[in-house]
User: What shape does this take?
Amino acid sequence: MPGARKILYGTERVLDAKREQIRDFLSDWDLDFGTKVRCYVEGETEIGALKHATREISGIEYINLRGQVIASQGKGLSFKDSLKNDLKSKVFSIVFIDADRADYVRTLKKAAEEDLITGGFYVAKPDFEFAHFTLEELINVVLLTAKKLNISTTSSKSLLQELRNVASTKEFFKMISKNYPELSAISKGEEWGRSLMKYALEHKEDSPLVKAALMTARATRIKFDYSRRKVRVDSITGECVKR
Assistant: This one.
């Protein structure tokens, strides 16, 4: 079939191809471990969650933005410049940010409008935890983590009553630390992110968080040039749609 080699291998002539195309060919046979997907996230929690879901898959690099979607002068590449470098290197870019900074969200959607994002983006509202879990589920994760750390504490019913008006992760951990000091060892970070993803994989397989992790893993097996020709990232939804 005309074009079959390009579809299967990413190029008609593998040995004469550019480095990025050879990387894609080799990675299909698990012979190359170069970066194929670059995930931009806001913190260690997101990194921990995604790493837990994709831990056996190579080719994924995580960039902690630490809220620096709009790079300050003199602090390295701007976010948009990094996305342009991804395009040049034929690396999929997938972005995870919170909705609490409207200026960051605008920058992200503007980048999508300019066709600079290739893998998709996810905006968590109001933040990563409360976008994907109910208050009761977050409490369950805390108690499961406490059990793992051999920490004796109160019941989920008592915690739910105490935290019933909490609406953000910052407030969530502030209240726990204030009222249950024995749980102060549990806080945001990679370990907390791993606990969240473990819970999601076991109890919320159809959640947007699990689907996002699966999309990240799947991107390592997709031919960049083929995907680029066929789909683009919608600047409103962040999803990949047909061109």
